[in-house]
Amino acid sequence: MNTLRKFYIFKESDETENKVYLSGELDLFAAPELAATVETLVADEDRALVLDLRELKYIDSTGIGILVSMLKARAGMKRPFHIQHIPNHIRRLLDLTGVGRYLTGSFNTNTQLKREESL
């Protein structure tokens, strides 16, 4: 069977942040790859975690669930988590599902943590 890969992950790290670029379609089939890739990055307390979604074309409920799980883990650690460059069609879906307001900006202050707890 000849299948084309539809999801790509690129990572880069420096002294202050781990940055993850997502490209393509984040769906049920790609979600385990993302979860495995970010597991150690989410647990890294020494660096901010940044997701760049500028090249993300599609996300389903499984992918959204992983983003929420990352948010909750980072909030529980009281460590920074940022999502950058969310395409309009992805932002609209996140807003329609009610999680968009939790998945933008930095999540390392008490006020934002209290907002996150209501998920």
UniProtKB/TrEMBL annotation:
Full protein name: Anti-sigma factor antagonist
Lineage, top-rank taxon, reads Bacteria
Regarding protein family, the annotation reads:
Belongs to the anti-sigma-factor antagonist family.
For this protein, the record's InterPro entries field holds: Anti-sigma_ant, MlaB-like_STAS, STAS_dom, STAS_dom_sf
Q: What's the source species for this entry?
A: Paenibacillus athensensis
Span of domain STAS = 20-119
Q: Name one GO molecular function term.
A: anti-sigma factor antagonist activity
Q: Name one Pfam family in it.
A: STAS_2
